[in-house]
Specification:
The protein is α/β, with parallel strands linked by helices and 257 residues long. It has one domain: Rossmann fold (3-Layer(aba) Sandwich). It has 6 helices and 8 strands; from the N terminus they run H-H-E-H-E-E-H-E-H-H-E-E-E-E. Helix 4 runs parallel beside helix 6. 32% of the residues are buried.
């Protein structure tokens, strides 16, 4: 223990001891999804400040993964927002702390993206958008040699409504870019569930899921069989910081009511 600050200053001048370099600020810990194989493939979970996209057909387990991520985040004390334009969330199922969940049911796709943006700016730790069957598929490519004639017409905008009008005219790519920047600025983990890829390169992480076999309890053909869960196969197709993963088999149990 040094009691004389003058002696310590002399040692610093002579170079006998050196000041430690300034430590870089630590990056926030990712949010675990509650599915160990997926968390390992994601490097610990959902990255804060990034957009994640889970893509899969109905029955592939996207909703089960979403519920697992919400349950894991709320149990860890995080405030979460679920944007649910399809009104498909069942609050009666257990596992999610509803006191820490904001459930938003917008009317359409544009309102869903706007609600997500507001939730990100409100500093929610995890913001999830369950697009489900409301996916806006990318436009089909035009065949070569086809010329499209576009007529531009000047639209009348009410006074004071210019900003909101321009926001509604933004193309889908610009909307995803805007959400990605908002998530990076405010440090939120943004999770998008869809049937087909939507965010494109603006998604830092893309997880693709395929439907597997259902898990039944009881003999085949016997009455009173119970559906206990579903098997699914997923893979991290793209990750900004890690290589793609090998196929990941999941057994997703049904939530008990």
């Amino acid at each position: 223990m040094w009691r004389d600050p003058t002696a310590l200053d002399l040692l610093l001048r002579d170079g006998q001891i050196r000041r430690a370099p300034a430590l870089a600020p630590r990056e926030p810990e990712p949010l675990p999804t509650g599915i160990p194989p997926l968390d390992a493939a994601l490097g610990g979970g959902l990255l804060r400040g990034h957009l994640h996209e889970f893509v899969g057909p109905p029955g592939a387990g996207c909703t089960a993964l979403l519920r697992a991520a919400l349950a894991s985040a709320t149990s860890a004390g995080e405030l979460c927002a679920l944007i649910d334009p399809g009104d498909s969330f069942d609050p009666a199922q257990r596992g999610i702390d509803l006191r820490r969940l904001l459930w938003v049911r917008p009317r359409d796709f544009l309102q869903a993206l706007r609600a997500a943006e507001i939730a990100i700016e409100a500093r929610f730790g995890l913001v999830a958008i369950d697009l489900g069957d409301m996916c806006v598929l990318p436009p089909a490519k035009k065949p070569r040699g086809v010329i499209e004639v576009v007529r531009f017409e000047k639209k009348q905008v009410a006074p004071g409504a210019g900003a909101s009008f321009e926001r509604l005219r933004l193309p889908a790519t610009a909307r995803w870019a805007r959400l990605s920047r908002r998530a990076e600025k405010h440090g939120a983990a943004l999770l998008v569930l869809s049937r087909a890829p939507q965010a494109g390169t603006f998604a830092a992480v893309s997880v693709e899921l395929e439907r597997g076999r259902a898990q039944w309890e009881g003999r085949p053909g016997a009455p009173g069989r119970f559906l206990r869960g579903a098997r699914s196969v997923g893979a991290v197709a793209r990750h900004r910081r890690m290589p793609p993963s090998a196929p990941l088999p999941f057994l997703l149990p049904l939530e008990a009511k």
